[in-house]
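Subgroup meeting minutes
Present: P.N., E.W., G.H.
Scribe: E.W.

1. P.N. recapped why we're keeping a running log of single-chain structure predictions: easier to compare across weeks, and new members can see raw inputs and outputs side by side.
2. G.H. added today's entry (191 aa).
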Amino acid sequence: MAWQTEEFGTSHEGFAGAVLADGSEPKPVVLDVGSGANGYQTREWWAYTGQWGRPQAAGYRAACACGWRGQSHPVDWEQAGDGRLDEVDVFAAHDDWAAHIDTVDRQTVPLPGDLTDTLGRLEDQLTRLADQAPVAALRAVGTLERLTRSVGHRAAHATEADDLSPETVGKALGISADAAQSRLIGYQLRH
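Output recorded in log:
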C-alpha cells in the first residue's frame, strides 16, 4: 500500500519497505498474479516472508521514492507467521514517512502569508458556494483554472528566463527534478 500526498505526488510516494537481518534492503520481488509474463514487482515488507525462495524481512521501515529511508521496526513473525500479515502494525513506518513529508514541506519555497490567507478564504467561500449554488461554484472553478493556466504560463517562462535548473525548481516545490521539468513544460504549453 503506497502513501502519497496530493502536493508532492509520486515524487514522495512512500511505503513500508523490508529490512533484512543485516540491515540491508532486499531487491524487489516479483509476484505472480496469474496474468502476463512480467508479474508485479514490490519492495513492500509483506512480500518478504521467507517463502518461495524469498528472503524473510527482519523488520520494516518507511521508504520514499526520493530515496529517503526511515528507522527500522522489527517484524514479529510469530504473530504474522500463520498468515495474519494484516495484523502486523506498520503505522510506525507511516508516521516516520509523514514526518519526512513535513520536513520536505518545510524545505519548499514559502508562500507569502497574505496569499496563504487569501487561498484559505477562497477555499472556504468556494466550498460554501458548492453547497449553496453548485453551478456558480463550477463557473468560479472555471475562472480559477483559466487564471492558474495564465499565471502558471507566465511563471514557467520567468523561471526559464531566470535560468533556474529543474533541480532548483524541484527542491523549491518539494518534487523531483523530472517532475519539476514536466510541470514547467506543461505550464509553458498551456495558455
